[in-house]
Design a protein that fits this description.
465 residues, 15 helices, 18 strands
C-alpha cells in the first residue's frame, strides 16, 4: 500500500518514554478516538491489514534518556518515519514535568529536529505549538512558569520534591521559556492565561498579534479545561490552516484536541470499542521508579496483600552477578505466587533511598555515567519480568518507571498495545500485541512515577469492565 493511498489519521505521536506514551493513548482512546501504540514504526501493510480502523497511532520511545548524539542517530529516523505516515498532526509527546537538559532528553533539540522534516507550509504564520500543562494530571503552566501537584500540594517545578532532585535531569528552573532557551536558539513566546480567555475570535486575534513579530515556538499556558480547550482549538486550526503539523508537549495536547474535537463532532467519547475485562486474583509488580508517589504505593501494597522483594540494583547491573541474582529473584517471586500473594519487586523506596547512591557509585566504577542507569537497569528488569511471567503464567502486571517499561515490553515481544480500562489518569490498563503467542493480549499497566493514588496496585489487580 502506498503512503498516499492511506487514509489520513487525526494524529500520530512519539512518546519520549513508555509510561508517557500510554498516557497520550489513554487521552485519545477513552474519548472515542481508536488508538494503537506501537513500539516500532508500523508498516503500511500492518496498519491496513490489522489496524485499519484506527484514527490515531503512537510510537513509544525512550528519548527522555537519550543524549544529543543518540537522538540524532536513533530518534531522528524514527520521527522521520512517523512523519511520513499521513496525519494532520505529528506530536512529540514529552513528560508533563518537562524534565530535560542540554545534554539529556533535550526538548529544544527535538523541536529543532522536527522543524527540519515536518516543515510548516505557511512560512510567515508558521510556528511550533508547545503545550505542557494537563489539569487531569494536575500539571499547570501560568505565565510560562510550570507547576505540578503532589498529593494535595502544588509545587513550582524547581521546588518539586522529585523533579527538582531528579538524579539525571534535575529541574532547577520553572520558567519553561528560560529553561528551553538553554536547549535551542529558536525564538519563544508565551500565550498566557489572559491571552487564552474570551471568545474564540478574541483568542485568535491575540495569537495573531503576538505572531506579528514572528516566533518559532509558542508556549501555551494551561490552568483549567477552558484554557486547555482554547489551546487545543488553536493547535488544530494551526494544523488545518497553516500546516503546523509539528507539535510538542505533554498529553495535554491530546486532552486539548479531544475537547475541541468533541465540540465539533470529530470525536465522540460515547463511541468506544472497549471490551469486557475481568478482575484477577494476583498480579506482578516490578518497580524501577524512585518517585515518592511510587514509594507510598509500594508501602501501602505491602500492607494490603502484596509481598515485597527489594532488588539490589547495584548488583543487578554487574555482568558477573546479574544472571545468578536474576535466578534467585525469580525463585523468590515464584514462591510468593504459589503462596497466593501478589509479588512486588522494587529497586528503591523514594528519592532518598540509599540504593540510588550505591548504583550511581557502581556505575562510576564501571566507567558509566548516571544517565546510563536507566538502560542498564531497565535491560535487567526486562529480563527478570519475562522470566517470572514465563514460569508463573500470570496474565496481568504493572511496571513502574518510564525507562523500565520500554525494556520490559520489548523483552515480551510486544509490538503494539491498546488501552482497555482507565485505572488512574496517565495509567490505563492495556492489552498487548506480541510476536510471541504466549504473551498475546497480556494485560499490563506502564506506570509513571507520579501516577495513581496509594492503592494503585490494588486497583490494577481489581480492574474490571
Amino acid at each position: 500500500m502506498r503512503v498516499n493511498d492511506m487514509p489520513k489519521l487525526l494524529l500520530s505521536f512519539y512518546g519520549d518514554d513508555f509510561t508517557g506514551s500510554t498516557d497520550a493513548m489513554e487521552a485519545l482512546a477513552f474519548n472515542g478516538i481508536k488508538t494503537v501504540l506501537f513500539l516500532e514504526p508500523p508498516s503500511r501493510e500492518l496498519l491496513q491489514n490489522k489496524f485499519k480502523d484506527v484514527k490515531a497511532i503512537g510510537l513509544a520511545g525512550v528519548s527522555r534518556a537519550m543524549g544529543i548524539k543518540q537522538m540524532d542517530e536513533e530518534l531522528k529516523p524514527l520521527l522521520e518515519e512517523l512523519a511520513r505516515i499521513p496525519s494532520h498532526i505529528v506530536h512529540y509527546k514529552m513528560c508533563s514535568t518537562f524534565d530535560s537538559s542540554t545534554t539529556v532528553g533535550s526538548i529544544g533539540h527535538v523541536i529543532d529536529m522536527g522543524m527540519e522534516f515536518v516543515p510548516c507550509t505557511d512560512k510567515q504564520k508558521g510556528y511550533v505549538p508547545l503545550l505542557v500543562g494537563a489539569p487531569v494530571l494536575k500539571r499547570y503552566t501560568l505565565f510560562g512558569h510550570h507547576f505540578a501537584t503532589v498529593g494535595e500540594k502544588t509545587f513550582r517545578l524547581d521546588r518539586h520534591p522529585t523533579m527538582s532532585r531528579h538524579p539525571v535531569t534535575p529541574m532547577d528552573e520553572a520558567d519553561l521559556c528560560l529553561h528551553l532557551a538553554k536547549q535551542t536558539n529558536k525564538s519563544i513566546i508565551n500565550m498566557d492565561i489572559h491571552d487564552l480567555s474570551g471568545s474564540p475570535e478574541q483568542v485568535q486575534k491575540r495569537l495573531a498579534s503576538r505572531l506579528e513579530k514572528h516566533a518559532d515556538i509558542v508556549l501555551f499556558d494551561v490552568l483549567d479545561d477552558e484554557r486547555l480547550k482554547a489551546a487545543g482549538r488553536l493547535i488544530w486550526e494551526g494544523a488545518s490552516e497553516q500546516g503546523n503539523r509539528w507539535v510538542v508537549g505533554s498529553s495535554g495536547v491530546e486532552y486539548g484536541l479531544v475537547m475541541h474535537w468533541n465540540e465539533k463532532g470529530i470525536s465522540d467519547p460515547a463511541n468506544d470499542s472497549l471490551v469486557p475485562v475481568e478482575a484477577v486474583n494476583q498480579i506482578l509488580v516490578v518497580s524501577g521508579s524512585c518517585s515518592p508517589v511510587t514509594a507510598g504505593q509500594i508501602r501501602y501494597a505491602l500492607s494490603n496483600g502484596f509481598k515485597g522483594i527489594a532488588i539490589p540494583a547495584e548488583r543487578l547491573i554487574m555482568p558477573g552477578e546479574a544472571d545468578k541474582l536474576r535466578r534467585q529473584l525469580v525463585d523468590q517471586t515464584i514462591t510468593i505466587i504459589q503462596s497466593g500473594l501478589s509479588p512486588l519487586l522494587y529497586t528503591a523506596l523514594g528519592p532518598e533511598d540509599a540504593s540510588i547512591g550505591r548504583i550511581q557509585s557502581r556505575l562510576l566504577t564501571m566507567g558509566y555515567q548516571a544517565a546510563d542507569s536507566g538502560r542498564l537497569l531497565g535491560e535487567q528488569l526486562g529480563l527478570l519480568t519475562k522470566e517470572i511471567i514465563e514460569r508463573s503464567g500470570l496474565r496481568r502486571f504493572v511496571i513502574a518507571g518510564g525507562d523500565t517499561s520500554g525494556f520490559v515490553t520489548r523483552q515480551l515481544g510486544i509490538y503494539a498495545l491498546e488501552a482497555v480500562i482507565p485505572v488512574a489518569p496517565g495509567g490505563p490498563l492495556c492489552k498487548g500485541y506480541s510476536v510471541d503467542e504466549r504473551f498475546e493480549h497480556i494485560q499490563f499497566v506502564l506506570k509513571g512515577g507520579q501516577v495513581g493514588k496509594e492503592n494503585f496496585f490494588a486497583e490494577v489487580r481489581e480492574a474490571a469492565r
